[in-house]
């Protein structure tokens, strides 16, 4: 039986219960979910709702009440796991947008490794949605988005270092998704 959390509506309701006080983070999340909907043709039909649900939930770990490690992919995944969300949804949130690179910077690789990372069209499309959406929901080209992150975070910070290292991986996911979208128009 599917969980309400792995449906776009159930995921949106949970995100809306946690993120609106965070202002731009909520705007970003709504736009990432819309972008994931646009990119859903790039994933198998059976995975489209999961993709959009993961987009709604990808940043819930920023909610102050969920903050434990301070690393939002891990804090969000742990919260979803505590809610008995489907394991695949938990793993997608844990590994969105190259989280493994930032986990390494933060000394949280072992904790993140508790969640297997899938190499799939769904994870690629989630990365695409996040890495083409600005911090206040703007639609950005991939390179503009990466540059925006690198300007926003101080050189030498965990995020700056992680994004710098992750850039080729993230670009590959975005390019694979764009190619799938062209090959499978809605």
From TrEMBL:
All residue ranges annotated as the HD domain in the record: 27-101
Top-level taxon of origin: Bacteria
Record Gene3D superfamilies: Hypothetical protein af1432 (1.10.3210.10)
Annotated SUPFAM superfamilies: HD-domain/PDEase-like (SSF109604)
Alphabetical list of Pfam families matching this protein: HD
Name under which the protein is recorded: HDIG domain-containing metalloprotein
């Amino acid at each position: 039986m599917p969980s309400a959390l792995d449906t776009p509506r159930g995921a949106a309701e949970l995100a809306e219960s946690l993120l609106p006080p965070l202002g731009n983070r909520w705007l970003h999340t709504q736009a990432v979910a819309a972008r994931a909907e646009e990119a859903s043709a790039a994933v198998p039909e059976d995975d489209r709702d999961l993709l959009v649900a993961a987009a709604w939930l990808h940043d819930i770990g920023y909610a102050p009440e969920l903050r434990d490690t301070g690393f939002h992919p891990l804090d969000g995944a742990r919260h979803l796991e505590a809610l008995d969300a489907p394991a695949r949804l938990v793993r997608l949130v844990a590994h969105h947008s190259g989280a493994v690179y930032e986990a390494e910077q933060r000394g949280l690789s072992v904790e993140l490794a508790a969640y297997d990372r899938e190499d799939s069209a769904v994870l690629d499309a989630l990365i695409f949605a996040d890495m083409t959406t600005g911090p206040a929901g703007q639609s950005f080209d991939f390179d503009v988005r990466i540059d925006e992150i690198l300007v926003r975070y101080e050189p030498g910070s965990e995020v700056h270092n992680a994004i710098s290292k992750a850039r080729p991986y993230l670009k590959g996911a975005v390019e694979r998704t764009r190619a799938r979208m062209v090959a499978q128009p809605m």
